[in-house]
Design goal:
- This protein has 17 helices and 31 strands.
- By secondary structure, it is of the alpha/beta class.
- The chain has 2 domains: 197 residues, Phosphoenolpyruvate Carboxykinase, domain 1 (3-Layer(aba) Sandwich); 271 residues, Phosphoenolpyruvate Carboxykinase, domain 3, CATH 3.90.228.20.
- The strands form 7 sheets. Strands 1, 4, 5, 6, 7, 8, 9, 10 and 11 form a 9-stranded mixed beta sheet that branches. Strands 12, 13, 14, 15, 16, 17, 25, 26 and 29 form a 9-stranded mixed beta sheet that branches. It has a 5-stranded mixed beta sheet with strand order 2-3-19-24-18, with helices on one face.
- Strand 4, helix 3 and strand 5 form a beta-alpha-beta unit.
- 51% of the residues are buried.
- The mean pLDDT is 95.
């Protein structure tokens, strides 16, 4: 394959990296089926993966990561820019010189006795002017097999790169998986990513968070487009027209479920249908019609397994029945898999995500129930297997976005849904997003943290400039999408979640679309436009009037506290914070009285 590229810079870079990592062999990935079979065979032979039940889960593989390597390690993730200021107050920063030097020590000889795989991959349809090409070097077959699903890889990508095309240089080695020698480094100014010491997807599938969000957000700022942590979903209305919505939610807040939801009975009768474009990342540009158009740069799902079942997400269950890689779930004796909140009865035994014999109800030393699957266990599955996937996935220009929804996991405060007054107000709403921590990142579960646009861990530059970029993008559009805030997770005083969620979320999206085409009613409140009880179609849903009232209520005391917390957060940006954000904050304070 190396012979098949005449890209001198690429060949030199691969040789330089190999000189540092010292692999025994270098293999260029061509993306063929024969190559896939070979890699799977080798990984099965070494135990890196286990082949699952060929009848029940054809083409599926199983993998476990190291026990201390099960989620993104944000504390070890750095933005390496020449000036610290360019990384901003919300990112870990290291100078490029220090980053390269520190990582070089770990990469040196790290691939001895191993093969270095060279994976040419495209984020977005190959050949689209909006797509970006990366080359990932890795010593993990698991990474190659995942990248095969998550991105477009192989020969065609190299062809599209030509002799001198631009690409993101992505280097990964598991090294010795020692957490003390783990670093996820981004060098936006060099279009380079170095990740070492981890085998967890979010840290090592470098096309995903590292390229498509951290590096791409920086490129987007420079090139006047947006890289966002958003799902993209098409809603076919009863009249046959399809409207597209992009939605930003922090990790493990149900983006995958929302992206492939099934309309609830009441609404299905009307004729709604959902088309899945993407569940995690949106790249958005202004097209010649003055609207915002989005592509999903990925080709697969890296979804959270626990809680996924035929009721919560039937489409995900169907999608992951074949050609899927399961990571850190429970392995059953018949070589099928299970997870907490999955389909079927709890198995009477199995091997847990740590590789130990497991039975339901087993307790650890602290008396806590031992889970069979890790809470952040995952399935990697091709998007083309999703029953609701759209053929527009391969459209080079993407789909036009009518509305952007922003959401967090907030037990209190945020009502079910509200509409911002305009783009600028919407950017302010996005900049104040907050959510309770989930299992997708290392840290204390449940803690509320600010997570603007769900990009806190993924913005590759100073977040104050990121807000400014959003404000500027709004000005450049002739018809900007409307911006909404949703919260599926509001609870009552006893901690019970009030809204049924899942398919019923379409009732909220119906109102959102109704606001876009001016057919839905709303009342003006201090925080934005909100539906009245009669503006939501709740046909077939049992929801008491009191519950609905609670879902749509605004507690001024809670909002008072919220405003103070926002002020503390904004202070971190000092004078860099765009004045528009402060203006919106003051205006809200005034409206709340
Ligand atoms: C993900 C995440 O894996 O956000 O998508 O952590
Ligand atoms: Mn995500």
């Amino acid at each position: 394959m190396a012979k098949m590229t005449e890209h001198r810079k690429l060949k030199k870079w691969v040789a330089d990296m190999a000189r540092m990592c010292r692999p025994d062999r270098i293999v260029w990935i061509d993306g063929s089926e024969a190559e896939k079979r070979c890699l799977e065979k080798e990984a099965c032979a070494t135990g890196e993966v286990i082949r699952l039940n060929k009848k029940k889960l054809p083409g599926c593989l199983y993998h476990r990561t190291a026990v201390n390597d099960v989620a993104r390690t944000e504390g070890l993730t750095f933005i390496c820019t020449k000036r610290k200021h360019n990384a901003g107050p919300t990112n870990n920063w290291m100078s490029p010189a220090k980053g390269y030097a520190k990582a070089r020590k770990i990469f040196r000889n790290a691939m001895k006795g191993r093969t270095m795989y060279v994976i040419p991959f495209s984020m977005g349809p190959i050949g689209s002017p909006f797509s970006k090409i990366g080359i990932e070097l890795t010593d993990s077959i698991y990474v190659v097999l995942n990248m095969r699903i998550m991105t477009r890889i192989g020969k065609d990508v190299l062809k599209s790169l030509g002799r001198d095309g631009e690409f993101t240089k992505c280097l990964h080695s598991k090294a010795d998986l020692d957490i003390k020698r783990r670093l996820i480094l981004h060098f936006p100014e060099d279009n380079t990513i170095w990740s070492v010491g981890s085998g967890y997807g979010g840290n090592v599938l470098l096309g995903k968070k590292c390229l498509s969000l951290r590096i791409a957000s920086y490129l987007g700022k420079c090139e006047k487009w947006m890289a966002e942590h958003m799902l993209i979903l098409g809603i076919e209305k009863p009249n046959g027209q399809i409207e597209y919505i992009a939605g930003a939610f922090p990790s493990a807040c149900g983006k995958t479920n929302l992206a492939m939801l099934i309309p609830p009975k009441g609404l299905k009768k009307k004729g709604y249908k959902i088309w899945t474009v993407g569940d995690d990342i949106a790249w958005m540009r202004i097209d010649s019609d003055g609207r915002l158009w989005a592509v999903n740069p990925e080709a697969g799902f890296f979804g959270v397994a626990p809680g996924t079942n035929s009721k919560t997400n039937p489409n995900a269950v169907i999608t992951s029945r074949k050609n899927t890689i399961f990571t850190n779930v429970l392995l059953k004796p018949d070589k099928t898999v299970w997870w907490e909140g999955g389909d079927g009865k709890t198995p009477s035994k199995g091997i847990d995500w740590m590789g130990r014999p497991w039975k339901p109800g087993m307790l650890d030393d602290n008396g806590n129930v031992i889970k069979g699957a890790h809470p952040n266990s995952r399935f990697t599955a091709p998007i083309g297997q999703c029953p609701t996937h759209t053929f527009r996935l391969d459209h080079h220009h993407g789909v036009p976005i009518s509305a952007i929804i922003l959401g967090g996991r907030r037990a209190r405060l945020a009502p079910l849904v509200y509409e911002s007054f305009d783009w600028e107000h919407g950017v302010y709403v996005g900049s104040t997003m907050a959510s309770e921590r989930t299992a997708a990142q290392v840290g204390k579960l449940g803690e509320v943290r600010r997570d603007p646009m769900a990009m806190l861990p993924f913005c590759g530059y100073n977040m104050a400039d990121y807000f400014r970029h959003w404000l500027k993008m709004g000005k450049r559009m002739q018809k900007a999408p409307k911006i909404f805030h949703v919260n599926w997770f509001k609870t009552d005083k006893n901690g019970k979640i009030l809204w049924p969620g899942f398919g019923d979320n379409l009732r909220v999206l119906e109102w959102v679309l109704g606001r876009c085409d001016k057919t839905a009613g709303a009342k003006k409140t201090p925080i934005g436009y909100m539906p009245g009880a009669r503006d939501l179609d709740l046909t077939g849903l049992k929801l008491s009037p009191d519950t609905l009232k609670e879902l749509l209520s605004i507690d001024k005391k809670e909002w008072g506290r919220e405003l103070k917390e926002q002020e503390i957060f904004f202070k971190r940006f000092g004078s860099d914070l765009p004045p528009e954000i402060l203006r919106e904050h003051k205006a809200l304070k005034k409206r709340l009285g």
